[in-house]
Amino acid sequence: MTQQSNSIIEALNEQQKAAVLENGCNLLIIAGAGSGKTKTLTHKIAYILDSGLAKPFQIMALTFTNKAANEMKERIVKLVGSDANQMWIGTFHSIALRLLRNEGYRYVIYDTKDQENLLKEVLKQLNIDPKKFTPKKILSAISSYKLNLIKPDQLPVDSIYEKTLKKIYKTYEEKLESSEAVDFDNIIIKTIELLEENPQVREKYAQRFKYIFIDEYQDTNYPQYLFVKLLHNKNNIVCAVGDEDQSIYSFRGAQIENILRFDKEYENCKIIKLEKNYRSAIEILNIANKLIAKNTKRNKKNLYSEKNGGNISIINLPTDTDEAYFVAEKILKLSKQGENLNEIAVLYRTNRQSRAIEEALIKYAIPYQIIGSHRFLERKEIKDILAYLRLLINKKDDISFLRAIGSHPRGIGAKFIEKIKQEAKNRELSLFETSKLLIEENKLSNRQKNALNDFLSIFETIDTTQRVDKIIDEIAQKSGYKNYLEQNSDFDRMGNVEELKNAGNLENLDDFLESLSLLDYSNDLEKGSEHVKLMTIHAAKGLEFNTVFIVGVEEGLFPNGNLKIDENDIEEERRLFYVAITRAKTNLFISHASARKINNAYQGCMPSRFLKEIDVKQKTKDIKRGDRVLHKLFGEGVVLSKDNDMLSINFNGSIKKVLVRDFNLTVI
Fold first, then answer.
1. pLDDT digits over 344-367, tens only?
2. Does residue 218 carry a catalytic annotation?
3. Active site includes 215?
4. Catalytic site residue 74?
5. Which whole number is the average pLDDT over 467-476?
6. Which position among 183, 185, 215, 283 bears the catalytic label?
């Protein structure tokens, strides 16, 4: 072993070192959360290069993101020098494309917009109504077929819908082929076909690449699994790194079975587990281990840590509003104690849950940043509905007119809208007023007239004096917006529209819009460098924070009630909760509400089954003797004692008994 090789492995723990030194057989590295997966993988590749076991051009490493690929390459270059740039390191798609081009295949790559445009051509050619077969929904179906390598001719035709779908899929593929183009799914499929149909090409790459590495192997789908399998022979070695306990992307086609059966798929295989966690305190890992042990589809392991002092609280709040304000108050307190806001994250199961949290953070002037999505009031569907509402009470609001009329396809194209804008400018009238005149003056084609009249009639048939939630329902229905979202299977966006009905004062439309405008995020809050991070648990994978809040841990929400809730679904939801827990380094707050507002009415909630599985004593509010508190009725006070759920508080000389979960009570 060279001096350089010694330096490569000397900073590793025993499990990591074993993984780096085992280079004579196929290898599965089960890397638990926070166990130094990337460090182990990059040091292993560096060790192979430095030891002369392979040249840089004989190494292929497959990742899921360009960021991960670049980080891997940079780390290896730092360890062994610039020769490492000759390695094939990249995403599955970029490596597959590189292989195809290496063999003389030059395809144009169609992005999502290109695919939608192509599909519109297909529907037009086949004379199929795009309202019944929406491009987004069809593309989703085609992608699902491709994830299972199902070709058009293999589709069932037991119904008219299936026959039509088969015809669309087949024509879509023919048009791609004639244009010498590929969509993202086809990049890997074309590579698989090349390797399957040309044994000499397959053998060439199997001989060339002595070592093939796959990162995050638990997230691979069937085509990705097959791509690697085709590149393997008995002369090269495949090393997969991953953690089945963090397999949370089945909705994208990921197959947990790929990692579970790896040692059966690849002969002469060894499994090494990385169980030492460098992120979380042992108290947090203990509940994570207890939770995930309930799953059956896994390689058994037990994460441990040398860190102590983890704080875990499970809090039951009366309502989701109380939950949001508990989070904001606790963050404010942590901040005053010196916690960096960048080290605090609020995690939730669905995007719609951010609304209440955002509202509480804004009221407490706490800067926040949403990862992987937009702030609630900035989401397209919310801005669309708000445009309809604003136009209802102010027909001269041209900005809202343009937003509403263009919110979804309704037979009113860009050229027609430009015509209305020009007419409005010439007449010095609003777009709404101009549109009415154009209809009355009979200056439009029948198609234009009918489409524009349908749009304008929305605002003349809705009673603006009724409750705002009823108005939102009518707008979504009469405008066709609800049907549009449902046809495109945009259930998350429809859920956000439903959540809008839980915001603001619903008794009066003017008051409702005014209350939302007051929630506009202050520019002053944007200027600081510190922001609390808000995100779904899926978006949090791979991240870590000193303090983590997991909110809404209730049956029907987590595990999610939209799932079939069979055992496979429950195991994936449990893995998702495990991922959430293991994002925390020191402080972990898990909360659930006894009632949650749905369609502006409170509905009772049950704690998630997962809370019983982690077996941590629940708290109502984290209040202790000596804390300063604020009560909406009694003012400021100091906690004298705590007896179970009852507090004794001194309010300026007056001693009061107050329940811990009293929603009028705030820790200051």
1. 999 999 999 999 999 999 999 999
2. no
3. yes
4. no
5. 93
6. 215
